[in-house]
Design brief:
By secondary structure, the chain is an alpha/beta fold. The chain has twelve helices and 14 strands. The strands form four sheets. It has a six-stranded mixed sheet with strand order 2-3-1-4-5-13, sandwiched between helices. It has a four-stranded antiparallel sheet with strand order 9-11-7-12. Strands 6-14 form a two-stranded parallel ribbon. The radius of gyration is 24 Å and the shape is elongated. It starts with 5 loop residues before the first strand and ends in an 8-residue tail after the last helix. Belongs to the peptidase M20A family. It holds the Pfam family M20_dimer. InterPro entries: Bact_exopeptidase_dim_dom, Peptidase_M20/M20A_hydrolases, Peptidase_M20_dimer, Xaa-Arg_dipeptidase.
């Protein structure tokens, strides 16, 4: 449910100037027709991946299924196992003419897109904008803004002693961890609405009659922006240090993964909105950007956030209903719902709208200029202004 193959699709096209009458819905009719023509071929691909779930960076079935499908389509150049990752792949359709480059990413766990950034994938292909879409149970939205995120491994080191014979000789690492855990629980009372703190005790000792020399936990800290995350981290770290101070243990805090908040590009979102709203059956995303971002805000996190700080990005969301009382993504209910024909049709609609955005970027140099100017204003200096 959480992880899919690390795909990276790139499209390049000649710079052209659209006429004033050539609005997105006019191009969208052709795009919609092409996607509908591919639906019968795409459905088995969808079912093969859905019915064979795989863990992150081990999506070998998905890798083979997707690359085989694209190899069967004329004009695509496929690079399997790209950029040092066995399940990463790159698909490029290049007319050989000068113009912008648009990339489409798939969702992945473990920071796969960050690995692609560091490996130079976006730089090598001179990518101008990046897009992906993600299902959920929230309203359809053109502008999804995700949370900044850090996962931590917290370890406490104490001293063993027999818990009955000489407990005073020990330093209880588990007590230190539990003290910190309780401190975090108290901290939540004073955190802001966009703050999230989650934890798990991953190692609670060896035997109950031993003062524990080692204990460890895994923690996740999220906030609406990277700036707020840094502020919250100072408070959570204080709780971890307090556990050590209270018990005499030593603490080690290791950040194991971090994602930036995703900053959606409103200029791209406006084109997506027009495309989505023009498709059938009727289903509209909000016209107002502020409302769209409000509905599209989530405390989930994605490595597409890091991409949005490197180049203009859009991650629209679309709803898949898991049934009455069903849960959202990363749950059995949602996994079942994602395999239905209704969910597949929603994916096709999102694909049509994103393709519409890509075509507009490829065809309208003024739009691309607006997109890049917005990105420079919002995140080009390294931080979001909202």
């Amino acid at each position: 449910m959480e992880n899919t193959v690390d795909g990276f699709v790139i499209v390049n096209h000649e710079d052209t100037h659209p006429s004033a009458d050539d609005a997105p819905p006019a191009r969208l009719k052709d795009i919609s027709s092409v996607v509908d023509g591919l639906a019968d071929d795409l459905w088995p691909v969808n079912k093969k991946i859905h019915d064979n779930p795989e863990l992150g960076f081990k999506e070998f079935i998905a890798h083979e299924t997707l690359t085989t499908f694209l190899k069967s389509k004329p004009g695509w150049k496929i690079t399997p196992s790209a950029y040092g990752m066995a399940t990463a792949w790159v698909a490029v359709f290049d007319t050989g003419k000068r113009g912008p480059v648009v990339s489409f990413n798939v969702e992945m766990g473990g920071g796969g897109k960050i690995k692609l950034l560091r490996a130079g994938a976006y730089r090598d292909h001179k990518v101008d904008i990046s897009m992906l879409s993600h299902p959920g149970i929230v309203p359809d939205s053109a502008l999804v803004r995700t949370a900044a995120f850090t996962s931590l491994r917290v370890e406490y080191f104490g001293r063993e002693a027999h818990a009955a014979a000489s407990p005073w000789l020990g330093i209880n690492a588990l007590d230190a961890l539990i003290t910190a855990y309780n401190g975090l629980s108290a901290l939540r009372q004073q955190t802001m609405p966009g703050d999230v703190i989650q934890g798990q005790i991953s190692h609670g000792g060896v035997r109950p009659n031993i003062i524990h020399a080692y204990a460890a936990g895994r923690f996740v800290v999220r906030a609406s922006t990277q700036e707020r995350l840094a502020q919250l981290r100072r408070k959570t770290d204080a709780c971890f240090e307090a556990g050590a101070l209270a018990t005499g243990a030593t603490v080690k805090i290791t950040a194991t993964q971090s994602y930036a908040d995703h900053v959606p590009n409103r200029a791209l979102g406006a084109v997506y909105r027009r495309c989505w709203n023009a498709l059938d059956p009727p289903s509209r995303v909000p016209e107002d950007d502020e409302l769209a971002e409000l509905l599209g805000r989530t405390m989930a996190s994605t490595d597409q956030g890091d991409v949005s700080y490197a180049l203009p990005s859009l991650q629209p969301g679309f709803a898949i209903a898991p049934g009455p009382g069903g849960n959202g993504p990363h749950s059995p209910d949602f996994a079942d719902a994602a395999g239905t024909r209704a969910a597949f049709e929603r994916c096709l609609r999102a694909g049509k709208a994103m393709a519409g955005v890509a075509v507009e970027v490829l065809a309208d140099e003024d739009l691309l200029r607006e997109v890049k100017e917005e990105w420079r204003r919002e995140v080009g200096e390294g931080k979001t202004k909202r």
